[in-house]
Design a protein that fits this description.
The protein is α/β, with parallel strands linked by helices. It contains 17 helices and 25 strands. Helix 10 packs antiparallel against helix 11. It is globular. Bound molecules: 3-acetylpyridine adenine dinucleotide.
């Protein structure tokens, strides 16, 4: 049911649009949520900041942007016709291909008619008396609905560090997560890239091929594995498609939500050095990160085991990069391998053998300021035409913390999450009834094949809404004790691994002042899905429905 009512307040007459559900964000999460809720007969409005669908793949248009999950996996499973019809040309999808896919899905399922583009939600307030969420847009429009779903993305709040002097820079500057739609040609230009995470590592080889000179400012060396991208073999595609439904089901029984990799059964420390070398070499040649992390069962649990893999990669770097000083700087030694997101590269280390590329080690120095003509780091002035910030995102909680979210007289979400996110299953927050999150903090989202987790969460949410409607219930909220238990479980699970040892965005460590707490659930998609299924089987255990 939907309607528009006109309210007269002291200051103005405002039209309030009414829906059954409001979804914020039209990336892969918001699109599928819309499809599911509409399937229940609900009148849904999706609000999207961009002027098109696709979320991450709409914004991150930097050169070389490509998914690090294989294209046959990184796609929706909810429609077999869709997955059979769509053809991915390469092993890993490029940003333009994935965006085309998102647009195709939007058209194929007629999603656009319920999406309001170029609209940023600034606040979401819950009225307990009416059991209604009321959202306000940046244009001052107001809409209400009993249910509100945050499909705002985990890496959707780009972070440009507040470098002194940035406003005075006379050249151009860019952030990977806000890339100009028309693209950027760096031919013949003097360019700086700041940051060597997944985004930086993908773009550096391409910018190096265009620029007159490229300086890369590296604060922390990352572990990169070869992607080994290639055209998708038609036979691989055919056999994968023939088994799609079974493969998708099997993916839910794996930690990362990707089937087809036999789970490791042995510790790295049980293998001889020669055995390990052979296995790591095979994985290196195969390309991709899952296969490598699956070499042994304790690479993310035991520091000594991890170091065998880390040393293998460091030796590879030394063998590829000709300048021994640069090789040393590029060799990660401040965190266990895999505790920051592993990067997949194409010619990344080789790029440092080019004459027009200079690596600047800022591990023990900061970028002091951006000047009119470049930047000052470690007391030295550098001059550039263009500066590219590949400095990442206020991850996992950034987009929701930017919004004014409150429910009645209680804490705002920002206050509630002051010491780090607290959720039940990464799907709901106690004290915020009828507000759901897709792949929120404390879910396995970012540690899994995202689209699979998105579908699982959106299905959980849609099924919950359907259950409530069927039983005449209007309000759902996790109990405080279920939330406390889940937060404890998420923390204990992370603490049993090496993950908290890295200063990663998983820990909030890239944002000054952000609480340091490991935010994703690393118990695996398999355990998480089982837990969610049990919760439902036990009548939505841990949720209070009235
Ligand atoms: O961001 P990041 P990203 N001065 O946070 C450095 C996904 N993704 O956009 O490590 C100097 O990883 C920072 O240094 P440090 C993927 O999940 C996926 O690259 O904090 N340097 C780091 O080197 C990924 O993990 C794909 O010491 C500063 C870099 O900037 C996530 O998005 C592709 C700095 C930021 O790295 C984020 O990746 C791209 C400062 N003040 C992204 N501040 C694929 O699917 C930050 N840095 C392949």
């Amino acid at each position: 049911m939907s309607a528009a009512v006109t309210k007269t307040t002291a200051s103005a007459t405002e039209t309030v649009e009414q829906f059954d559900a409001i979804v914020i964000g039209a990336g892969f999460g918001g699109m599928y949520m819309l499809h599911r809720l509409r399937g229940l007969g609900l009148k849904v409005r999706v609000y999207e900041k961009g002027d098109g669908v696709g979320g991450t793949w709409y914004w991150n248009r930097y050169p070389g942007a490509r998914c690090d999950v294989e294209s046959m996996e990184y796609s929706y499973s909810f429609s077999d016709d869709l997955q059979q019809d769509w053809n991915w040309p390469e092993r890993y999808g490029t940003q333009p291909e994935i965006l085309r896919y998102a647009e195709h899905v939007a058209d194929r399922f007629d999603l656009r008619r319920d999406i309001q583009f170029e609209t940023h939600i600034v606040s979401a307030h819950f009225d307990p008396a009416e059991t209604l969420w009321s959202v306000t847009t940046d244009k001052g429009e107001v809409a209400t609905a009993p249910f509100c779903v945050m499909a705002v993305g985990n890496l959707s709040t780009p972070r440009v560090p507040d470098f002194k002097g940035i406003e005075g820079f006379k050249g151009n500057w860019y952030h990977t997560g806000m890339w100009p739609h028309e693209g950027v040609d760096f031919t013949g230009r003097r360019v700086a890239v700041i940051g060597t995470g997944s985004s930086g590592i993908q773009m550096i080889p391409i910018i190096a091929g265009q620029a007159e000179h490229l300086h890369v400012f590296q604060r922390t060396a990352n572990f990169c594995l070869p992607a080994r991208n290639m055209p998708l073999d038609p036979e691989v595609e055919r056999s994968h498609k023939a088994e799609y439904p079974e493969r998708r089901r099997a993916a839910y029984d794996t930690p990362f939500g990707i089937a087809g990799y036999p789970p490791p059964v042995k510790s790295a420390l049980e293998a001889t050095p020669e055995e390990r070398e052979r296995l790591y070499e095979d994985k290196w040649q195969e390309g991709g990160s899952i296969s490598f992390l699956y070499a042994y069962n304790d690479l993310l649990l035991n520091a000594e085991a991890n170091d065998t893999a880390a040393e293998f990669v460091r030796a590879k770097i030394r063998s590829i990069v000709k300048d021994p000083v640069a090789a040393e700087v590029l060799s990660p030694n401040s965190h266990p391998m895999g505790t920051k997101r592993l990067c997949l590269d194409t010619n990344y280390y080789e790029t440092y053998n080019r004459d027009n590329v200079t690596l600047v080690d800022i591990r023990n120095a900061t970028i002091e300021e951006i000047t009119e003509t470049g930047l000052l780091a470690d007391g030295r002035a550098y001059e550039f035409d263009d500066i590219v910030f590949a400095t990442g995102f206020d991850a996992m909680t950034g987009a929701m913390r930017e919004m004014d979210i409150q429910a009645g007289q209680g804490e705002t979400l920002v206050e509630k999450w002051d010491a780090g996110p607290r959720t039940y299953l990464g799907i709901m927050v106690a004290g915020f009834p009828n507000m759901f999150m897709i792949t929120g903090p404390q879910s396995p989202g970012v540690k899994s094949q995202m689209i699979l987790s998105i579908e699982q969460h959106a299905d959980f949410i849609a099924d919950c809404v359907a259950h409530m409607r069927e039983h005449g219930l209007s309000r759902v909220e996790p109990t405080s004790s279920a939330e406390v238990d889940w937060v404890d479980h998420v923390n204990q699970t992370a603490d049993a691994t090496l993950y908290p040892l890295a200063n990663s965005w998983y820990m909030g460590a890239n944002i000054p002042g952000k609480p340091r707490i490991f935010m994703p659930y690393v118990g695996g998609v398999d355990r998480f899905k089982r837990k969610c299924d049990e919760v439902v089987a036990r009548g939505y255990e841990g949720f209070e429905m009235t």
